[in-house]
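Tokens for chain A. Residues wanted.
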């Protein structure tokens, strides 16, 4: 089990795999960082893909 906190706030999420961690983050983003989600809509898909890949690397290196 790995624990990694949200990149915006300090809330921590524990999961066995990155995809499971990411799923929890998605729910957290939608409820706690709705503003950020709204802004993210204007960002390019590339940025989103990069974010996921950065977070995955971070999770994998824990
Ligand atoms: Zn957060």
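Reply:
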């Amino acid at each position: 089990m790995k624990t990694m906190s949200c990149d915006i706030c300090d809330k921590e999420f524990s999961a066995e795999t990155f995809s499971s961690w990411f799923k929890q983050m998605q729910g957290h983003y939608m409820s706690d960082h709705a503003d950020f989600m709204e802004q993210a809509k204007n960002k390019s898909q590339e940025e989103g893909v990069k974010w996921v890949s950065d977070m995955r690397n971070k999770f994998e290196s824990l």
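Residues 45-60 form the longest helix (16 residues). The mean pLDDT is 95.
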